[in-house]
Amino acid sequence: MRGVVFAGDRVLEFVEFPDPTPGPGEVVLEMKASGICGSDLHFYRAPKGGGSTGLPGAATAGPIIRGHEPCGVVAAIGPGVSANEAKVGMRAMVHHYWGCTVCEHCRAGWSQMCDRQRPEIYGINAHGAHAKYMKVPARTLVPLREELSFEAGAAIACGSGTSYAALRRLDVYGGSTIAVFGQGPVGLAGTQFAVAMGARVIALDISPERLAQAKELGADVTINPAKDEPVAALKALTGGKGTDFALECSGAPDARVAAVRGVKLWGHVCFVGVGGTVTLDVGSDLMMRQVTVFGSWTFSIIGQADCADFSVKNKVAVDRVFTHRWKFDDAVEAYRLTDKQIGGKGVILM
């Protein structure tokens, strides 16, 4: 089979790999949809011969098949996999992490937090979903409900699931106000889920196209920080108090500062944008305003399933975050356009 490999300096190649065979406790999925995530761009843009991306590097020897938002159908089952874990033909997402399986984090479903070994991250340091088939441990599977498309499953497998988990940690509630900074794929999903949770959403981005999409997904108000000072604008929209919550999805230093300064006294801020830095005055920005700031990295396997259930129960049209759909053979063009970061989410359909 052919798999998508990043060669460095924004060069993408199709490389031949053997079709995978499941070993003990493993399954092989026939991929149906493989999402493209903003964090993929760190590796797509990395220089040839390696270089720091700020994310976990390669552990698998040789070229790595990319794609860490897998969704497909179980095609083969290895020895020792029970019928409760997987059946041929089962529709499934993948929790794209695998750790030691026995530490407290792995046992709680947070394999990416494994403290006994470097976890495998499919599509990052182990073979991922940009290919016809993908081999994973059966225990990484999350059943995909019939009400959800394969595309929706791919989104929930990382980008949309990340926003959902962050909103749950913020404890967003009906009638609250949240500012969502950055309306890329993760931010758009955050807007979508926050609206479904009953919150008033103020969406911020410098792209008019993305702000328009946020409005379509239910944002009450949009702000373009390139035109209006964001903290002042947020205060004006909240009677001078600031928002109850802020979700920062861009990773931009200025946006992170504005997210903190734009919440009310006792407000809560969550950072999910990868990389970068932020400089704050601990006294005036945090302590004297009793502001809580934390980071959130993806979700547990239980949280992934919960996101899917929430989407079905609340009729969240997860597919609406997609603005681009490509065939597998068009992967070069898919990443070239994704690199421009001007639209919503993209997905490769097998």
Walk me through what this model shows.
This protein folds into 2 domains: 2-158 and 299-349, Medium-chain alcohol dehydrogenases, catalytic domain (Quinone Oxidoreductase, Chain A, domain 1); 162-295, Rossmann fold. Helices cover 26% and strands 26% of the residues. The protein contains 11 helices and 17 strands. The protein has helices at 40-44, 104-107, 150-156, 159-170, 185-196, 208-216, 230-237, 253-261, 282-286, 301-313, 331-338; strands at residues 2-8, 11-16, 26-36, 70-77, 91-94, 97-98, 120-121, 133-137, 141-143, 177-181, 200-204, 221-223, 243-248, 263-271, 292-295, 322-327, 345-349. Helix 4 packs across helix 5 and helix 4 crosses helix 10. The protein is globular, with a radius of gyration of 20 Å. It starts with a strand and ends with a strand. 50% of the residues are buried. The model has no long low-confidence stretch (mean pLDDT 95).
Structural class: alpha/beta
Q: Mean of residue pLDDT?
A: 95
Q: What percentage of the residues does DSSP assign to strands (E)?
A: 25-35%
**CATH homologous superfamily of the largest domain - what is it?**
Medium-chain alcohol dehydrogenases, catalytic domain
